[in-house]
Write a sequence for this structure.
């Protein structure tokens, strides 16, 4: 009985996570008022389940009934309350979250009947194509819901489209009006955007800097010190502030370009109708503040149906900067963006083999200045190109696409392939790109094989592919390229309902074991860089621990770090969040976060070569992030103190971003005198960038030992920093 109860509780957590993905975050997108899902018994479902939510002004008016195929009716009763959202008039909407498990509900109900605020709605059954035997029930009702609406105005001059904002231009004003018990430490500004165009930032290196912006406290007639800013896709602008200079309730603020800016930082989008927004609040010290997920954006203001220029005009090509600027913290994969239209793409030549396409050399002369794109049909298993392709393509990348995936092959890899063919055999030789989509049944077997951990829910977030890159001479001899001198960029399309925080690209070894590669979610695609070809899968890795319930303050952080294979439990089922973290454990987390490796494991006398953390300790030491207690002693099993943690994480931050963080001011912790002199400047920096904060009575407690949950939170801040 106890085992069944534990499994049922575990499934409630899993389904709670699924619905939290389906439910909208506090944004200006339309919110579906009612949504439910039926999931039958499966590898991770011990009972059939109906899970869903309803937004309502009157929770007492809501009831939900399932209309079964045998004409019986089941009352859906289990519910909890989520955080409320607000409409444009600041009317509060409560969210009722439903989770109903019933072993007798072996078939999906034909429909659901929802009584809501005096009206009756029938939600018909819709098959979920992404999840066999799963069904959804959704109404057509939608509302523009978000966080509490605060006063604000868009101050942009929107008369002329596709123009840069002049230096000193006011951008937006807002007045935080509902802070609760927390002060505002960040602002997320969505500059005008719509489904096809957006405000853009000048992508030329060094043009847009933090000093180009000002946040003015109009009420206090002062400037708010910005500690961090970032530029995101689709005109997203974020700021963070010092603890000593946070946003104040009922103060009016204006965000503007500074008088010293160059006037070529921000370009308005083409003629059209757009939406813009501002969110202000407490973001958990994220740098930059996250746009989605577990954030407390307690104030917002939205500007809908915003006209820029002449909406009736046909938008012209957006001048420089490019339409998709690179965010400051985005790694290299974003440099390869798919243009909506590729001029004169190479046209594959039909082959007698329906699974094969041939691209001739003449076609490869087309493309853009950055890349040559070859579009291939779904189901194509081989693309053949001339071995001399690199001489035609030059320093551009070769990109091969279908609807579900793409690979971008750099010049160095094409050169390597050509070099594998003797000069006297180049004539008639071809480069072969082989692609094999793994069947759904084989994918399911793969997932089942790797889901033997306790509390692990492993799902395919898209198709699984086997890739091979080789060169074939005219006599049929094939030579495979096993390693790449430069990485190939892989993009895998993922399901829209997949949880972004839990996604990753995994290499599938010959024995079926999974190896985490990485990956960043960009425009609905998981992007990763590969050093070799084999079988790769985009997976959703949902790991729970028995001692970290969903309501634990570090639950989401631990779950995301576990999904990225940065952190693990002390066993399959236990994480031990209150257990002391050792110096070796913290060094290992830093090495995994920064992807540091070392061939040398004999750095400190007290770290044996066979110590599981030896390689990580050596790598982090080589990077200058850690030092030992002495030249020869590291003390790997000693608990790490908060002041030691501050030193390590600030050095890791500098290593990751290629620059030292500035010390703006000293933090007046009440126990500052207890901090070791060597740690003081690092604690000031760690406080300024939001990695640490004081505890009770404004104490830093430098000698206090870090727990595993606290260590996970600090590493998460490092992971998200830029």
């Amino acid at each position: 009985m106890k085992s069944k109860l534990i499994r049922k509780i575990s499934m409630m957590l899993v389904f709670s996570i699924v619905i939290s993905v389906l439910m909208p975050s506090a944004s200006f997108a339309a919110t579906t008022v009612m949504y439910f899902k039926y999931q039958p018994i499966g590898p991770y479902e011990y009972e059939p389940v109906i899970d869903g939510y309803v937004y309502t002004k009157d929770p007492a008016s809501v009831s939900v009934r399932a209309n079964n195929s045998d004409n019986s009716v089941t009352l859906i009763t289990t519910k909890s309350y989520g955080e409320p959202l607000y409409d444009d008039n600041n009317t509060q909407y409560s969210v009722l979250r439903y989770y109903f498990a019933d072993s007798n509900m072996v078939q999906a109900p034909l429909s659901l009947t929802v009584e809501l605020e005096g009206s009756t709605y029938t939600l018909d059954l819709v098959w979920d194509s992404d999840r066999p035997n799963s069904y959804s029930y959704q109404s057509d009702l939608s509302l523009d819901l978000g966080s509490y609406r605060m006063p604000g105005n868009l101050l942009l001059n929107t008369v002329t489209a596709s123009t840069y904002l002049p230096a000193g231009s006011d951008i937006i004003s807002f007045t935080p009006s509902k802070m609760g018990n927390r002060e505002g430490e960040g602002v997320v500004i969505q500059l005008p955007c719509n489904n096809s165009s957006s405000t853009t930032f000048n992508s030329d290196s060094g043009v847009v800097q933090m000093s180009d912006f000002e946040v003015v406290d109009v009420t206090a007639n002062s400037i708010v010190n910005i500690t961090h800013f970032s530029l995101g896709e689709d005109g997203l602008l974020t700021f963070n502030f010092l603890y000593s200079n946070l946003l104040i309730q009922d103060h009016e603020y204006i965000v503007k370009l500074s008088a010293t800016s160059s006037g070529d930082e921000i370009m308005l989008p083409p003629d059209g109708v757009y939406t813009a927004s501002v969110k202000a609040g407490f973001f958990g010290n994220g740098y930059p503040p996250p746009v989605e997920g577990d954030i407390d954006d307690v104030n917002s203001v939205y500007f809908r149906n915003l006209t820029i220029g002449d909406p009736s005009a046909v938008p012209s090509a957006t001048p420089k900067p490019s339409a998709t600027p690179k965010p400051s913290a985005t790694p290299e994969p974003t440099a390869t963006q798919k243009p909506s239209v590729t001029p004169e793409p190479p046209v594959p030549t039909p082959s007698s083999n329906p699974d094969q396409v041939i691209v001739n050399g003449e076609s490869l002369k087309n493309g853009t200045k950055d890349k040559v794109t070859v579009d291939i049909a779904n189901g194509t298993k081989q693309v053949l190109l001339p071995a001399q392709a690199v001489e035609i393509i030059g320093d551009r990348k070769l990109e091969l696409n279908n609807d579900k995936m793409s690979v971008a092959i750099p010049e160095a890899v094409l050169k390597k392939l050509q070099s594998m063919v003797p000069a006297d055999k180049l004539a008639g030789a071809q480069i072969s790109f082989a692609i094999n989509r793994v069947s759904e049944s084989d994918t399911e077997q793969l997932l089942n094989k790797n889901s033997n951990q306790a509390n692990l829910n492993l799902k395919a977030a898209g198709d699984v592919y086997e890739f091979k890159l080789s060169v074939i001479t005219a006599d049929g001899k094939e030579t495979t390229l096993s390693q790449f001198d430069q990485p190939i960029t892989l993009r895998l399309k993922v399901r829209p309902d997949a949880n972004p925080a839990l996604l990753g690209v995994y290499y599938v070894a010959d024995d079926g074991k999974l190896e985490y590669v990485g990956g960043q979610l960009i425009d609905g695609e998981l992007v990763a860089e590969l050093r070799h070809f084999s079988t790769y899968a985009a997976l959703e890795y949902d790991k729970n621990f028995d001692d970290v319930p969903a309501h634990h303050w570090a639950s989401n952080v631990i779950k995301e770090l576990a999904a990225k294979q940065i952190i693990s439990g002390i066993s399959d089922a236990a994480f031990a969040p209150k257990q002391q973290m050792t110096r070796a454990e913290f060094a290992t987390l830093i090495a995994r976060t920064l992807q540091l490796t070392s061939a040398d494991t004999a750095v400190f006398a007290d770290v044996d070569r066979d110590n599981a953390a030896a390689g990580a300790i050596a790598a982090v030491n080589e990077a200058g992030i850690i030092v030992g207690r002495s030249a020869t002693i590291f003390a790997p099993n000693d608990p790490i103190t908060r002041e030691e943690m501050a030193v390590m994480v600030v050095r890791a931050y500098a290593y990751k971003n290629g620059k030292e963080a500035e010390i703006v001011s000293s933090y007046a912790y009440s126990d500052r005198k207890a901090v070791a002199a060597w740690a003081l400047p690092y604690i000031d920096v760690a406080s300024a960038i939001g990695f640490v904060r004081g505890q009770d009575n404004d104490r830093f407690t430098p000698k206090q030992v870090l727990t595993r949950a606290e260590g996970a939170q600090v590493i998460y801040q490092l992971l998200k920093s830029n």
